[in-house]
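Appendix B: complex inputs.
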Amino acid sequence: MVALPPCERPRLRCCAASGCRSAGAGPLLAALRAAAAAGDISAGASAAPEPLEVRSVGCLRLCGEGPLLAWDGPEGTRLFGGLTPAAAAALVAQVRGVAPIPLAADPALAGHQLDLEQPFFRLQRPLVLEGCGIVDPECIEDALAHGSYAQLRRVLHELSPEQVREQVRRSGLRGRGGGGYPTGLKWDTVALQPPGRRYVVCNADEGDPGAFMDRSVLEGDPHRLLEGMAIAAYAVGADHGYLYVRAEYPLAIERLRLALQQARQQGLLGSSIAGTAFALELEVRVGAGAYVCGEETALLHSIQGQRGIPRTRPPYPAQAGLWGAPTLINNVETLAAVPVILRQGGDWYAAIGSEGSRGTKVFSLSGAIRHTGLVEVPMGTSLRTVVETMGGGDPDGGAVKAVQTGGPSGGCIPAALFDTPVDFESLLALGSMMGSGGMVVMGQGTAMPEVARHFMAFSVNESCGKCVPCRAGTVQLLALLDRFVAQRATAADLEALEALCTMVKATSLCGLGQAAPNPVLSTLRHFRQEYIAALGPGS
Amino acid sequence: MSAATPVPAPGAVPQLHPQPGPGPCDGDERIARLIRRQGCQGDGLIEVLHQVQEIHGYLPKPALLQVARALRLPLSRVYGVASFYHLFRLQAPATHRCAVCLGTACFVRGGGRLAAGLQRRLGLALNQTRDDGAWALEQLSCIGACGQAPVLVLDGVLFSAPLVDQPKALDRWLTSLGLPAGVETR
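Resulting structure:
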């Protein structure tokens, strides 16, 4: 959470996740620490003030205003955006109460304070992101102080694997990676396989363009994920697991490796965890730039050191996964939701959200929108609330045209349908999908055939080449879309486009190919006039 | 993929050359060591290739052979994996690399115009390397910096590109980053 209750001793929290880093969080953090240390020394002679804590934390949500800095004090939390290292001394002076001018009049800080009462922050319901922005992701003591691993300990001592699965079943949690498969059911399937070795795998190959929710969890609160994964391993009887992270997330990989090492040192991973007979080894596996590895069977091949090529299912990984053993694969956000479900109970979690889509979902908002960043809201919140109320709509004051959900597997939803609640079924009914949680907002200037071509080019590039409908079909679809973008398509092209979409969708081997036509189909459905207008003369 | 010539320009940053055949190749012992550390397991192939690429900047043929022998895998399997994943390079990288993000958020915020400007300036198509090996223009699909869109990554440093709507101002900004003027400047 970003805003914290008032506290006696002031403290600074600076976001040091990838987004804010690229906006200059590194130099700002260094300057703040230097200013804080200098203040300790100079004031040391007279008042001997308390040392000022400057903590490096995970995502503070409003990524577009980065680098973000939260100041906690007796009056609650204040949030600042876009500060440069030059403003560090002025800010530290304000925090220490030794500034010569009031905060509002301070020229170094004017215009940088962000309103924490705005809907973007007020309407958030942080469960998965509960600790993100508060805990220091590189410090396990801090994570422990904020309750990490408490549920793992409790579960190991008090609950049977069946009781854990019972809570997850009751929570109604569904896979957050895009598929929406009931998590409890998946856990049961793995647990009830014939006796033998089992694996647990975390899918952290967040590849959808415009999606950075999982990265924020990995970078901001890795211990929560490890706790969730350890609980999952206990519930299904696994003693070995892998975290498959895309290579494009170097900071996430670094923090995850550090977190694993710290957890082992604390006896929270390895053998006889928390003094029980439960043992678990976890390893990080790094991808190498292949979107298709987000597909579970391709991911398993990649973990085994092979080309990331999907295979037909069944057998499902829950029956035969890594090296033929039953394997539980869950996405980062799914596993990160597990500790809170066990802490509060499955029924408590199920009371949040909507029928069929329980709990909260994290979305990353980007594109033509005023507030770019991360939001966690109860399922069933309307698109209008997320995009317009929280996101603030178009940055130039124009009307939003559409929102794209689900990445290259999803679709575009026109502004006229923004009253739709965000849940698995409603988005599917509109020809889009929940996907992993990326929401890219598009303004009036964005032409839909171009958007469709953009995604198709992505799918052509990322098709693994195993099955013909995807390998060749996406190339043909791209060629057709080129003609629409160049305004020289014919009525026959439009017919061919629709027929080919249907064919590729129906006959491709894996999710990548089956969903590749979705951006075309959804824009055809909601913005058909743009395709008609792109027909060349004489057709 | 472009044909990069691994001949360094005089005065350019020195590059590692592929050493065909046996010879005093500095990488050999390092590769042997990292494979031993990996436990000589075939399932560690991707991790091994990552580390080899860190040493050489790409995956030279002799190194692939060495990896195949040490992990007791067919060379076809090693090459198959090396050529499958986008991040593995089979040719020496250019001295300077400019990568433009064309993820959805960057696309919506004018990433296409930024890419077009870079192509004009460097005289290169996307995913192409200049013949002298000095510059490569690459395309990325989302690095998660959607809050700063549109972005480009210049020699590993991320920049948020302002002013994509104003070609002249964009051009001045690119000059300030040290990007050379391309064939069609002026």
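Chain A has four domains: 11-116, 140-350, 354-443, 448-533.
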